[in-house]
Write a structure and sequence with these properties.
Its cofactor is a divalent metal cation. There is one protein chain. The protein is about 45% helix and about 20% strand. The protein has 14 helices and 10 strands. Helix 12 links the parallel strand 9 and strand 10. Helix 10 packs antiparallel against helix 11. The N terminus is likely disordered. 5'-O-[(R)-(carboxyoxy)(hydroxy)phosphoryl]adenosine binds next to helix 8 and helix 9.
Length: about 375
C-alpha cells in the first residue's frame, strides 16, 4: 500500500488520475488505497458557496468558491432565502470545479466534511443535504464541521502551531476570544455582547452608501471601509472605544455603530446632502471607525493575553495569538494586534486574507 501511495504521489496529477482509473479497472478503490486520504470540504454557512479538496498532510489539491457579496450588497444585506437559492444554484458547479481543479474523481474521496453550524439555517441546509446525498452515493463517511473551529484551526495548514494558543475570531457573524487547547477543546474567554465587528462595518459602509463609491462598489463593507480609510484622517472624528472599564474580555459594537450613525447624520446636515449620497468626509469617518474598532479589539485581546499568562493557561514566552475570520484580513487591525503581541512577547499569526474569509479549504 505504501509503495502504491509513493508511486502515485511521485507522478504528476494527470498520471495520478490515470493510475486511479487503472486501479479501478482491477476493482480497487483508489481513495481507500492511497495513504493520503482526500477530504472534500463544503462550506455554505453564510453567503459563500465554497468547496476544496485537502489531503491529511494539509496539502490543498484544489478549490472553488462562489461569492454572493455583489447580490447582497444590492439588497443592503443578506436575505436568507436569497442566499439559500444562490447556494442551490451554485453548489453542484462549485463542487465539480473543486474536484476538477484537484484532478480527482469523486470515487477517490475518503470523506466529505461540511459546515453544520453555526450559520444561517437555510444556507447550512443546502450544503448539508447536498453532502449527505453525496456520502450516501459514494459510501464514505461524513464529517460535521463547526465553522468557528475551522476558522480557528486553519492556521495549522500553514504554520506548526502547538496547543494551547489564543484565537481571536472576528467576522461578519462572530466575535470571540478563545483558548484553543486541542482540535476540539476550546475555552471561551470573551465574545461580543451584541453584533459582530464585520456586521457593524457592513452597516456603517451601507450608511455611507459606499456601494455607490466607484472604488468600493464590489467590496464587502469591511473591505470598503479599509480601502477608504487609507485616504482619511483617523483623528478627524473622535470616536471612543466602548467598554473601557469592563473587567472582562467581551466586546461590543452596537454603540460604535450608533455613534458613527449620528456623525453621518450630522455631516449630511452640514453638507446639505440627502441620505444615500456620498459625504465629502466619508474617508475620515471610515478611518475613525476603523481606528476605534482596531483599538477596541486590541485592548480586549490584550486583557485576554494577560489573563491567560497570569493563570499559566499560555506559556510565558512565545505564546501564539491567531487572528482569523473576515475582519482579521484587515491590515490596520492586524497592525494594532501586532502592537499588543510585541508588548506581551507573543507571536501574532494570521492566515492570508483569502483563508481568513470563508472558504472550503478550512472546512476540509
Ligand atoms: O469570515 P467571513 O467571510 O464570513 C463570516 O463568517 O461572517 O467574514 C465576512 C465579514 C464581512 O462582515 C466583511 O465586511 C468583513 O468580514 N471583512 C472585512 C474585510 N474583509 C472582509 N472587515 C474589515 N476589513 C476587511 N479587509
Ligand atoms: Zn466565517
Amino acid at each position: 500500500m505504501l509503495t502504491l501511495h509513493k508511486a502515485a504521489a511521485a507522478l504528476p496529477k494527470p498520471s495520478r488520475s490515470r493510475m486511479c482509473e487503472f486501479l479501478r479497472s482491477f476493482g480497487f478503490d483508489p481513495g481507500k488505497l492511497f495513504l493520503h486520504k482526500l477530504i472534500l470540504g463544503i462550506e455554505t454557512s453564510c453567503d459563500d458557496t465554497a468547496a476544496a479538496v485537502v489531503d491529511e498532510s494539509g496539502k490543498v489539491w484544489g478549490e472553488a468558491i462562489h461569492s454572493q457579496t455583489e447580490v447582497h450588497l444590492k439588497t443592503g444585506g443578506i436575505v436568507p432565502p436569497v442566499a439559500q437559492q444562490l447556494h442551490r444554484e451554485n453548489i453542484q458547479r462549485i463542487v465539480k470545479e473543486a474536484l476538477s481543479t484537484s484532478k480527482i474523481s469523486p470515487s477517490e474521496l475518503s470523506a466529505i466534511a461540511t459546515t453544520v453550524k453555526p450559520g444561517l439555517a437555510l444556507s447550512l441546509g443546502v450544503g448539508l443535504s447536498f453532502s449527505l446525498r453525496l456520502v450516501d452515493q459514494l459510501k464514505i463517511p461524513f464529517i460535521p464541521i463547526h465553522h468557528m473551529e475551522a476558522h480557528a484551526l486553519t492556521i495549522r495548514l500553514l504554520n506548526k502551531v502547538e496547543f494551547p494558543f489564543l484565537v481571536l475570531l472576528i467576522s461578519g457573524g462572530h466575535c470571540l476570544l478563545a483558548l484553543v487547547r486541542g482540535v476540539s477543546d476550546f475555552l471561551l474567554l470573551g465574545k461580543s455582547l451584541d453584533i459582530a465587528p464585520g456586521d457593524m462595518l457592513d452597516k456603517v459602509a451601507r450608511r455611507l452608501s459606499l456601494i455607490k463609491h466607484p472604488e468600493c462598489s464590489t467590496m464587502s463593507g469591511g473591505k470598503a471601509i479599509e480601502h477608504l480609510a487609507k485616504q482619511g484622517n483617523k483623528l478627524h472624528f473622535d470616536i471612543k472605544p466602548p467598554m473601557q472599564r469592563a473587567k472582562n474580555c467581551d466586546f461590543s459594537f452596537t454603540g460604535l455603530q450608533h455613534v458613527t450613525d449620528r456623525i453621518i447624520t450630522q455631516k449630511e446636515k452640514e453638507e446639505g446632502i440627502q441620505k444615500g449620497q456620498i459625504l465629502s468626509s466619508a474617508a475620515h469617518i471610515a478611518a475613525a471607525v476603523q481606528h476605534t474598532t482596531a483599538c477596541h479589539i486590541a485592548k480586549r485581546t490584550h486583557r485576554a493575553i494577560l489573563y491567560c499568562k497570569q493563570r499559566d493557561l499560555l506559556p510565558q514566552s512565545n505564546a501564539v495569538l491567531v487572528a482569523s475570520g473576515g475582519v482579521a484580513s484587515n491590515f490596520y487591525i492586524r497592525k494594532a494586534l501586532e502592537i499588543v503581541t510585541n508588548a506581551t512577547q507573543c507571536t501574532l499569526l494570521c492566515p492570508p486574507p483569502r483563508l481568513c474569509t470563508d472558504n472550503g479549504i478550512m472546512i476540509a
